[in-house]
Amino acid sequence: MSSQPENQSSAASTALPIHIQGLTKRYGNLYALDSVDLEVRSGEFLTLLGPSGSGKTTLLMAIAGFNRPDAGSIRFGDTEVITTPPHKRNVGMVFQSYALFPHMSVAENIAFPLKLRGVSAAEIAERVETALATVQLDGLGDRGIEQLSGGQRQRVALARAFVFRPRILLMDEPLSALDKKLREQMQIELKHLHEQLGVTTVYVTHDQREALTMSDRIVVINEGKLAQIDTPHAIYNHPANAFVADFIGESTMLPLTRDSAGKLFFADHLVESGPETEPGSEWSLVIRPERLFVIKDGAEVDPDQAIAFTGEIRDFVFQGETAFALMSLSDGHVLSFRFGTDSLSQNSLRPGDRITLGLKRHDLIIIPRGRAQ
Ligand code: ADP
Ligand code: MG
Questions:
Q1: Side-chain half-sphere exposure of 275, counting CA atoms within 13 A
Q2: What is the pLDDT of residue 296?
Q3: Can you tell me which atom of ligand 1 is nearest the CA of 204?
Q4: Best mutation site among 33, 49, 57, 63 for ligand 1, i.e. most ligand atoms within 8 A of its Cβ?
Q5: Which ligand is nearest to the CA of 172?
Q6: pLDDT at residue 101 in the model
Q7: In the chain, domain spans
Q8: What is the pLDDT of residues 281-313, one digit of tens each?
Q9: Cβ distance 46 to 40 under 8 Å?
Q10: Is pLDDT above 70 for 253?
Q11: Mean pLDDT across the stretch 339-365?
Q12: What integer is the mean pLDDT of 254-261?
């Protein structure tokens, strides 16, 4: 170990990368983490996204040191920490339940990690002031915790997590207890705070929109295995498999067939002709509902530019800023289709209408056929 984390409390924080290799955690026969490899880059905002029970908390707690993996390695920079106890890992943590000390004031809560580290009273006062200002709670240091709203409590928890300048910040569903409006506001605030602090951050959520909003990169996790790691844009536009395509955003998946020349088709539409997809394996076409567009009666579609699907509207639902429709194709497949509304056209589609929808070729997503089918 290059230096003792406890002695760094007055040094400026430097972000650290996290290197995770072969991390496995079993509970009886269940693999909560199954040989996970993950590189968290220095200073990035990385989100672990997955359904309930997928292993997000187990992975975060392993990084924090609150559980002991059965196998694998976790390094902070060059330092192996797998056997280092949590209080010596020097990471900041924020949980869904704020875990504040109810009998202490706001300022005392934030000062707590500094007292533990033996920081002088004068410096504590100064750092608590700065932390309060950073989370926009200036002047509320003397308040009791029970006098605060949920959003304010979470800001205190956040301030307490970064006031000692940890090089790694871990957050487990910190906004889940807040209502939607406040949650969305806090997502943007947290993102700005991260930019300001520059600390390597691993954030856990089961909310895909939250992950897309906040992250530099997203790790999609399912049953203790990593399904994909990429930027929000790439995760959404180029899902690697059926699980990711189904879990993130809305999608229709259509099975593709292959002709004797190896070309992929949906019905009589040529979807792909290149060698990118290996012969012998099965593939699906993923369609994002908002990428479909209405082709007006009689309008020509250049097959090099777009694919056209004709069918019958089955359902139409107005949902405010967008509307949602289901269209049945003649072979029985159903496409979901989402489009922007305006005050004139909101009733323009009715069940039974026959329409043609286009999909641009650059919006075609082809994935290996998987169990989310
Ligand atoms: P997530 O945070 O993604 O909801 P967790 O990491 O909490 O998921 O849990 C992953 C899996 O491990 C789940 O199947 C969960 O039931 C199981 N698990 C977690 N903690 C324990 C424990 N202490 N004992 C037994 N099983 C556990
Ligand atoms: Mg969890």
A1: 0
A2: 85
A3: 2
A4: 57
A5: 2
A6: 93
A7: 5-243, 250-368
A8: 788 999 999 999 999 887 888 888 999 999 999
A9: yes
A10: yes
A11: 84
A12: 86
Q: Under a CB-based contact definition with an 8 Å cutoff, are residues 3 and 184 in contact?
A: no
Tens of pLDDT, residues 165-186: 999 999 999 999 888 988 999 8
Segment holding 196, helix H or strand E: helix 180-197
Written as one string, the DSSP assignment of 73-122 is: EEEETTEE-TTS-GGGT-EEEE-SS----TTSBHHHHHHHHHHHTT--HH
Q: How far apart are CA 294 and CA 341, in angstroms?
A: 13
Residue of the CA atom closest to atom 10 of ligand 1:
55
b/e string for 27-39 if b means 16 or more Cβ within 10 A?
Answer: eeeebbbbebebe
- Selection from 211, 205, 201 nearest residue 42 by Cα: 201
CATH of 5-243, one of 2.30.110.10, 3.30.360.10, 3.40.50.300, 3.30.310.50: 3.40.50.300
Query: Quick one: average pLDDT of 261-270?
Result: 85
> How far, in Å, is the centroid of ligand 2 from the Cα of 55?
7
Closest-CA residue, ligand 1 atom 16, reads: 53
Residue with the smallest CA separation from ligand 1 atom 8 is 53
Is the pLDDT confidence value at 335 over 80? Answer: yes
Helix (H, G, I), strand (E, B) or coil at 348: coil
Strand 217-222 with 225-230, pairing: antiparallel
Q: What is the pLDDT of residues 114-149, one digit of tens each?
A: 999 999 999 999 999 999 999 999 999 999 999 999
**pTM metric for this prediction:** 0.89
The Cα 112–Cα 192 span in angstroms is 24
Instruction: For 250-368, give the CATH class.
Output: mainly beta
Q: Identify the nearest ligand to the CA of 30 by its number.
A: 1
Q: Which amino acid, residue 69? A: P
Burial per residue of 127-157, b for 16 or more beta-carbon CB atoms within 10 angstroms, e otherwise: bbeebbebbebeebbeeebeebeebbbbbbb
